[in-house]
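Lab meeting, item 3. Inverse folding demo.
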């Protein structure tokens, strides 16, 4: 549009914009830069918006779309996301729609007519549909107000989910719509992705709106992955002050299934999420998570896009993420409600090496490796995590944040003026495009040369230790970047350059405190007492606990085995649990069962331990999934959804016998299963009553005995299911 026209165009006033926000969307006021962005788009100027997920990007184009004549086109990568948005807008009474390949010819025609009649305000399109010229040619005759490119990082192969079709947006739209104002939006903001987007969309002159990416309520921590990471994981989750919702990210589908299973066995309701599950199961698991039916999702990175669950308290990277970008996005799913939340990454060199091996087969192996190096540096560097993350997104942050492990733990500092000077000197003398790794190489080469007799002034003062230790220089280069002595020149091939501060330092150096890197040793693992069977149980205590059980049973009028099973009592005399949490970890117990019957046992054990002066460990006990089959999670979930047992058995290719055996395992691990929906179909109420009463009065829960005692009138399978029902109701 001509400048003349732009100047003479009527721009809606602030009051009008605010009224739209209140009347249509029902919000009181704008957040941060929303208003400025909306005004900018209304002036038909290009804009580039970087806002963390959940920041409120959608309104930035939805309100301008409503306030202008014609139709706004929104390009978005995922059909599910578009559907959500369209649904929401339609509920608000806005004519928004989406075009994709699944639309029937009839619907398509109707929508097209509406667009030509200028009725539609917002059209969502995937980039592939956009490129379908034949289908969209009619848009030439529609008055299009502007184009919004959502999740614009997809344009850049430095972004975390690159989509080649995204690269053609400018070219394609220009062909049949002419040059329209564009607003690009993303939750990714590394300087190189930013530049890539601006160039690809040809909006290098766009005004840039960038909100801070700081998430002050998130606590960042990295720990060495212990030799028994599963136990480490469970202990970590159990030791959280409150059991809120959480997400565990793993690299492989197999690991996802395994960890979800492990959590369930340990009384943490969890479901898996990965691309190989059927869409129905995925949607169900996701909904269960949103509705708090389960507390944890264990997922591959596929989980979380577009999920709006505000109260996730814990995000754990069980495996190393492939890039800092995805780490930030994934941790960002914690604490949307602004309440304190924890982000833990388990770090292991083995994982790094595994990813390196995978990267080598990657088409873009160099790039993948560079991204991984950044994760590696982040893990090792002792500098405030928040400062590091925000620096990655091109933001300066004054550490310490006092809310990350690096700020809260003490790290070894040392006087680093000489070494910093050496690094800056190399950068200065090598104005070509240099990256951290090159700087380190050059330094090391120079050190070798100096030992062979060459003189490098700046090296003369550097300690012998620093010269010998290979890993010494990289953290210094990184710290020079983080403290603003150097910067990465994105426009010039990523080379490092001196900043004004760096130049000044070279002229007149001063004292600088540098931080030594983390050392991740695997020896931090404390051996857990899970290999219990080697330990003998405490006969004295066992005797007392059995008496206690008999008393409770007769008082409640239920059989002793329904109060506690023998195996559970024995285990208690090995571990001496003194808290409910510990008790719930004893096999055969769950939290609900521990709460129901556990208290007298705990009191008794506590007194015993004090009396005998027994040392107990405060470690959380972890149930190992020794013979746990992957089917367990599936079975629990499907019983929960009242799927018939025949169907479950068939879909898992098990016999009924095998299925019942699994169900019994689940039950004896202390999990409650509600089988009533199924039992009601095989036994009448009277029959159920009879078997129930039998178990109530039996000395033992043996099935053969029950079969005989009930005059062989019931099938073994029926009795076994009734026993599960009985134990679930009475005992768990
Ligand atoms: P993003 O696309 O940046 O991840 P959304 O546009 O989906 O974020 O917005 C995140 C949430 O914040 C949504 O629930 C949205 O309705 C809400 N929101 C956006 N702007 C405002 C506002 N000005 N006042 C209150 N809530 C808002
Ligand atoms: Zn910090």
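The presenter then showed the designed sequence:
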């Amino acid at each position: 549009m001509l400048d003349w026209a732009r100047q003479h165009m009527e721009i809606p006033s602030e009051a009008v914009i605010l009224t739209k926000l209140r009347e249509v969307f029902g919000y009181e006021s704008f957040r941060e830069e929303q208003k400025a962005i909306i005004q900018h788009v209304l002036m038909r100027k290009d804009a580039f918006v970087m806002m963390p997920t959940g920041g409120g990007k959608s309104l930035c184009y939805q309100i301008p779309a409503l306030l202008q004549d014609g139709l706004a086109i929104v390009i978005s990568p995922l059909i599910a996301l578009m559907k959500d948005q369209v649904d929401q807008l339609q509920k608000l009474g806005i004519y928004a729609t989406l075009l994709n390949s699944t639309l029937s010819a009839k619907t398509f025609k109707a929508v097209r007519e509406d667009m030509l009649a200028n009725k539609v305000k917002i059209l969502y399109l995937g980039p592939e549909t956009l490129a379908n010229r034949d289908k969209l040619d009619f848009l030439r005759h529609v008055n299009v107000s502007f184009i919004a490119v959502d999740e614009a990082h997809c344009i850049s192969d430095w972004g975390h989910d690159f989509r080649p079709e995204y690269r053609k947006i400018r070219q394609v739209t220009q062909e049949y719509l002419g040059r329209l104002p564009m607003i690009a939006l993303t939750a990714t903001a590394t300087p190189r992705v930013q530049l890539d987007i601006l160039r690809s969309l040809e909006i290098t002159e766009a005004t840039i709106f960038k909100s801070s990416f700081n998430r002050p309520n998130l606590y960042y921590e990295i720990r060495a992955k212990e030799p028994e990471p599963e136990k480490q994981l469970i202990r970590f989750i159990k030791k959280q002050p409150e059991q809120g919702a959480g997400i565990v990210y793993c690299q492989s589908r197999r690991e996802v299934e395994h960890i979800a299973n492990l959590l369930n066995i340990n009384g943490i309701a969890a479901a898996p999420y990965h691309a190989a599950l059927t869409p129905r199961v995925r949607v169900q698991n996701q909904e269960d998570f949103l509705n708090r039916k389960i507390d944890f999702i264990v997922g591959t990175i596929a989980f979380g896009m577009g999920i709006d669950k505000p109260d996730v308290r814990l995000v754990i990277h069980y495996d190393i993420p492939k890039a800092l970008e995805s780490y930030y996005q994934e941790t960002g799913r914690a604490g949307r409600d602004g309440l304190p939340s924890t982000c833990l990454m388990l770090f292991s060199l083995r994982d790094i090496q595994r990813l390196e091996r995978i990267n080598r087969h990657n088409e873009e192996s160099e790039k993948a490796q560079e991204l991984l190096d950044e994760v590696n540096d982040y893990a090792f560097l002792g500098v405030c995590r928040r400062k590091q993350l925000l620096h990655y997104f091109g933001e300066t942050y004054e550490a310490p944040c006092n809310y990350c492990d690096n700020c809260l733990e003490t790290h070894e500092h040392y006087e680093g003026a000489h070494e910093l000077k050496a690094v800056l000197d190399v950068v200065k003398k090598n104005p070509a495009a240099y990256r951290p790794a090159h700087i380190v190489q050059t330094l090391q080469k120079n050190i070798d040369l100096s030992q062979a007799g060459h003189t490098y002034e700046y090296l003369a003062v550097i300690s012998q230790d620093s010269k010998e230790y290979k890993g010494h220089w990289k953290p210094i280069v990184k710290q020079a970047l983080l403290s603003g002595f150097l910067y990465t020149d994105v426009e010039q091939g990523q080379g490092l350059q001196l900043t004004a501060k760096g130049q000044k330092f070279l002229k007149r150096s001063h004292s600088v405190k540098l931080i030594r890197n983390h050392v991740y040793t695997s020896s931090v693992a404390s051996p857990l007492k899970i290999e219990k069977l080697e330990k003998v149980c405490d006969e004295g205590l066992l005797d007392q606990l059995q008496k206690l059980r008999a008393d409770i049973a007769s008082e409640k009028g239920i059989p002793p085995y329904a109060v506690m099973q023998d195996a559970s009592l024995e285990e208690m005399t090995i571990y001496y649990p003194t808290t409910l949490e510990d008790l719930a970890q004893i096999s055969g117990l769950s939290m609900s069962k521990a709460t129901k019957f556990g208290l007298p046992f705990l009191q008794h054990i506590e007194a015993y331990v004090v009396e005998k002066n027994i040392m107990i460990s405060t470690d959380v006990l972890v149930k190992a999934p020794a013979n746990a089959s992957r089917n367990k999670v599936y079975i629990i979930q499907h019983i929960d959804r009242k799927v018939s047992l025949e169907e479950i058995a068939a879909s898992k290719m098990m016999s009924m016998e095998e299925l019942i055996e699994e169900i019994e395992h689940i039950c004896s691990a202390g999990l409650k299963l509600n089988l009533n929906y199924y039992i009601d179909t095989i036994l009448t109420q009277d029959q159920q009553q009879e078997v129930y009463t039998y178990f109530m009065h039996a000395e033992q829960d043996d099935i053969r005995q029950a079969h005989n005692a009930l005059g062989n009138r019931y099938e073994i399978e029926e009795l076994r299911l009734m026993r599960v029902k009985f134990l679930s109701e009475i005992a768990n």
